[in-house]
Design a protein that fits this description.
With 135 residues, the protein is mostly beta strands. 13% of the residues lie in helices and 41% in strands. It has a four-stranded antiparallel sheet with strand order 1-3-2-6. It starts with a strand and ends in a 14-residue tail after the last strand.
Length: 135
């Protein structure tokens, strides 16, 4: 099972140790198309779009990890999409040379929700709570 992460679940970020460490069988720097925002709460949000968003493609052996990530992202498939904080969708993921790595899950937020939460657009498509550039 593959998940593209662009925020606190990236290696070196705050939620990686709790949710991903010891469960990831592969981690590769990667990109997807979208728009990236930083939120005042200290984490990012991604919406659909045509910008390049930088992150990691994480591969997990255990499908059960998805339920844990859904809970973290406040996503429940039985709710209306507008009631979720993030919605889990599939997206095409690319390596750093632009070649497709196939489809993976990614958590997206509605643009209206980003606006309500005071999201600030990140034109370079890179978020980090650390002082280091993500790529």
């Amino acid at each position: 099972m593959k998940v593209f992460v662009y925020g606190t679940l990236k290696p070196g970020e705050g939620n990686y140790l709790r949710y991903c460490a010891g469960k990831v069988v592969e981690a590769h720097r990667a990109t997807v198309l979208g728009r990236l925002f930083t939120l005042p709460m200290g984490y990012p949000a991604m919406t659909t779009g045509k910008d390049t968003v930088h992150g990691y493609l994480l591969t997990f052996a255990d499908l059960g990890v998805l339920a844990t990530l859904d809970e973290l992202e406040d996503y429940r498939p039985d709710r209306a999409m507008s009631e979720n904080l993030y919605n889990r969708q599939s997206a095409e993921v690319y390596n750093l040379l632009g070649s497709s790595l196939g489809l993976a899950w990614v958590y997206l937020m509605y643009p209206q929700r980003v606006e309500q939460l005071g999201g600030i657009y990140l034109p370079d498509g890179c978020w980090s709570c650390n002082s280091f550039k993500c790529l």
